[in-house]
Specification:
Layout lengths: L10 H12 L3 H14 L4 E7 L5 E6 L6 H6 L27 H8 L1 E7 L6 E7 L2 E8 L4 E7 L6 H5 L4 H18 L4 E6 L2 E6 L4 H9 L7 E7 L4 E7 L11 E5 L2 E3 L2 H10 L12 E6 L5 E2 L10 E2 L2 H22 L42 H20 L16 E6 L19 E6 L3 E6 L2 E6 H17 L6 E11 L2 H9 L1 H6 L3 E6 L2 E8 L7 H8 L9 H16 L9 H11 L15 E5 H9 L2
Parallel strand pairs: 1-7, 11-13
Antiparallel strand pairs: 1-2, 2-6, 3-4, 3-6, 4-5, 7-8, 9-10, 10-13, 11-12, 14-15, 16-17, 17-18, 18-19, 19-23, 20-22, 21-22
Helix pairs in contact: 1-4, 2-6, 6-7, 6-12, 8-9, 11-15, 11-16, 14-15
């Protein structure tokens, strides 16, 4: 008979399995240890790092501390002081409750713990390595807890090699620190990395903490949201529409003092901005929900980031109404800025100065009823011809602001254009010999061209973005990019996350033409930019390449955000009339690009209306 094959796993193996879910990288360790410090009643927390947490993660707090026996028990699996029965899961007032964090950390690192309760005269020192106790002894220490996590994944080479380089891991730590600092505004926080203080916050309001984290200019960009109902209390701040950004936006949701990711509520907020911001930008928001703990379930995600709400639909409606109310007031009244220099230049009144009659350009001898007068049709044609010529000179296949017409839906024919490659639209081979077709512009947004299989619609802005993106990428990939020195250096203040990213990418920035100096305290001076930079300020260009966390060392991947930002800034706009030559050039250049069907960000450029679909529309007539 075969032997039994099911057996219990050793505790060390079970702890490592749990650690794989709870502890993914050094940032996960910091999250768990800081949440334990908050639950212990601390109001001062210091985080000390070496080598982005690989060598050392030390969290020091002034909380209640632990007795020697509690310190020993805390590292057992499912040992916790937060709950005692399953029913307690629905009345949680603490961050932790599973009792797995310390056991999981001890399974993947070396631990040294010093702790003492406020009423005790001596504390305790505890050593653990790979879930094995190596010693415990009395020690002199201050009230609170000082826990040091050393050499994370030291005995797990496979896990350790999957850690990214220090700059990326530090980036993750800084983002986790932002969430912890925003949700615990009543605590003093200090973050030190390799003996350099990155953050030092005093307790204060949420708005003060936002300003400390993301810069003083954030204060003038936010509007307060506050509503209180029997279901939920909502408070926080949302970004005003005019400050929505393509990159660098900050979006945070909290519930009962806990950070969460909630796509449903995120969608509710974005819905309020639908007609106020462009489709390619995002608003910032910092919103906290206070609900009855019995109406939410936080025990559905290893890192507790996902939360289930019992009254989700009702909270959606309350959130949407609260945000719309604030946006309505903000849009109607705006923000009063008494320090603004954008004031009207009103000349000094001089009563003795003669005022001449303004010249309206009218010809007094003109008789519209005389036979020699120019016909209205000729005047209209001349006007259109002159406008088209001016538009062509102004744009020259480069972006310009142009005059925007409010409602121009006229189809305007251009000269004939050779049809695109039918293979791009899966046109049968029998149709490839069709002669050239006429292009039309519709609503000043789309270029329309008949093809053998139907009508082809090209989104003019997206098409030009694709064309310009390919051109910029070709310039960047040509090797070392020439640099253009600025007459006046631009100063920019970055967040610690952005500073860490910039330092990691400094060599690449130099290779494509940037020259940036560190002025200290997260302030930088931009002295030179790439020669090909168009459509963006130096600051906007720099932010575009540090918006994402540092990753690939490939220069082309590094330059893609900058090339895309430049293309989007300089491409022809929606509602911009195009001349005949411009439509021809865009259409021809598009089908010479690397991917004429989609923009670099994945948006469709071309839409086909087949002959069969057109025929079906007329079958009922």
């Amino acid at each position: 008979m075969n032997e039994d094959v099911i057996r219990l796993l050793p505790d060390s193996v079970a702890n490592q399995i749990a650690a794989g879910e709870v502890i993914q990288r050094p940032a996960s360790v910091i999250k768990e240890l800081v949440e334990n410090a908050v639950d212990a009643g601390a109001d001062m927390i210091s985080i000390i790092l070496k080598d982005a947490g690989r060598t050392l993660i030390q969290v020091v707090d002034n909380g209640c501390g632990m007795s020697p026996s509690d310190a020993r028990m805390a590292f057992e699996r499912h040992a916790t002081s937060k709950i005692s029965a399953a029913a307690d899961l629905y009345s949680l007032h603490t961050m932790g409750f599973r009792g797995e964090a310390l056991a999981s950390i001890a399974a993947v690192a070396q631990i040294e713990l010093r702790t003492m309760r406020r009423d005790d005269t001596v504390g305790t020192r505890l050593l653990i390595s790979e879930s094995q106790y190596e010693g415990q002894e009395p020690a002199s220490c201050v009230p609170g807890t000082n826990i040091m996590v050393k050499n994370i994944f030291f005995h797990m080479p496979a896990r350790r090699k999957f850690l990214k380089k220090d700059s990326i891991e530090l980036n993750h730590i800084l983002r986790e620190f932002e969430r912890l600092a925003l949700v615990n505004t009543g605590l003093d926080f200090t973050l030190i990395h390799n003996d350099v203080t990155l953050h030092q916050f005093m307790r204060g309001s949420l708005k003060q903490r936002i300003s400390d984290l993301f810069g003083k200019n954030m204060e003038s960009q936010l509007a307060q949201v506050a509503t209180d109902t029997s279901i939920v209390k909502i408070d926080g701040f949302i970004g005003m529409p005019r400050f929505a950004r393509k990159r660098g936006f900050q979006q945070f949701l909290f519930v009962n003092g806990r950070y969460m990711r909630h796509p449903f509520f995120h969608k509710a907020i974005l819905k309020c901005y639908e007609n106020l911001i462009g489709a390619d930008v995002q608003p910032s928001y910092f919103i906290n929900f206070n609900v009855d703990p019995s109406t939410i379930d936080v025990n559905i995600h290893p890192q507790k980031y996902e939360i289930k709400f019992e009254q989700e639909q009702a909270i959606w409606q309350i959130l949407e109404a609260a945000v719309k109310e604030v946006l309505g007031k903000t849009q109607a009244a705006g923000a009063l800025d008494f320090d603004s220099d954008d004031t009207l230049d009103i000349p000094l009144f001089e009563p003795d100065k003669a005022v001449g009659t303004p010249d309206d350009g009218a010809v007094g001898s003109f008789d519209p009823f005389s036979e020699s007068a120019v016909g209205w049709e000729q005047i209209y044609d001349n006007f259109n011809r002159k406008a088209a010529d001016n538009s062509g000179e102004r744009m020259g296949m480069r972006a310009s602001s142009g005059n925007i017409t409010a409602d121009n839906t006229v189809l305007r024919p251009s000269r004939t254009v050779a049809p695109p490659d039918p293979a791009l639209f899966e046109v049968p081979e029998a149709e490839t010999s069709t002669p050239s077709a006429t292009c039309l512009q519709y609503q000043n947004r789309y270029i329309v061209s008949p093809t053998n299989s139907g009508l082809m619609l090209i989104a003019q802005h997206r098409a030009h973005v694709r064309i310009l993106y390919d051109r910029y990428m070709a310039r960047f990939s040509g090797g070392s990019m020439a640099s253009q020195k600025l007459i006046f250096a631009e100063d920019v203040e970055l967040s610690p996350v952005q500073t860490a990213t910039l330092k990691a990418r400094m060599n690449m920035l130099k290779s494509i033409g940037f020259n940036v100096d560190d002025c200290g305290n997260n302030r930088w001076s931009i002295n030179a930019v790439p020669v090909s930079l168009t459509g963006l300020s130096a600051t906007e260009a720099l932010l575009s390449v540090i918006a994402d966390e540092p990753g690939s060392e490939d220069t082309s991947a590094f330059c893609r955000p900058l090339a895309l930002a430049m293309a989007e800034a300089t491409a022809v706009r929606h509602q911009q009339p195009l001349t005949q030559g411009e439509m021809e050039s865009i259409t021809a250049d598009l089908f010479r690009s690397s991917d004429p069907s989609y923009t670099p960000s994945g948006l469709p450029i071309i839409s086909m209306i087949s002959n069969d679909e057109i025929s079906r529309r007329f079958e009922t007539l």
